[in-house]
């Protein structure tokens, strides 16, 4: 009779632990899904900043999409990991392009400013020469 009591207690504890794990797993999946959608949104914003055309808003990533394992992925967690890595990679590439474009614009602006300064110096030099050449000689 006492063995049955221990088995019932163990079964009850294992069921409680299983429910706690399911709850934690659901919370982690929700967090990962929210991160994936946030990454996609930031990537879309980055792409939109690089073009003058209106970009269509991307569809929300659904849990079934994020956690669906394909042939090469053995588990749902691996499928989500691959998709998140791809989202990070796309965002990283877009940000690198934005930075490159910004740096190129900055370099061009600095080159224009330097050229303008050189032209001002040259104009000042010619102006001084002109003044010298138009001054009457004092004898």
What order do the helices and strands come in, and which of them pair?
Elements: H1 2-49, H2 63-66, H3 76-134
Helix pairs in contact: 1-3
In round numbers, the mean pLDDT is 90
Spell out the helices and strands N to C. HHH
Terminal Cα separation, in Å?
135 Å
Total number of helical segments?
3
β-strand percent reads under 5%
Number of strands: 0
Shape: rod-shaped
Question: What's the main sheet like?
Answer: none
**Helical proportion?**
over 70%
Oligomer: single chain
Rg, alpha carbons: 33 Å
Provide a descriptive summary of the structure in words.
This protein is mainly alpha-helical and 139 residues long. It is 80% helix and 0% strand. The chain is built from 3 helices and no strands. It has helices at 2-49, 63-66, 76-134. Helix 1 (2-49) runs parallel beside helix 3. It is rod-shaped, with a radius of gyration of 33 Å. The N and C termini lie far apart (135 Å).
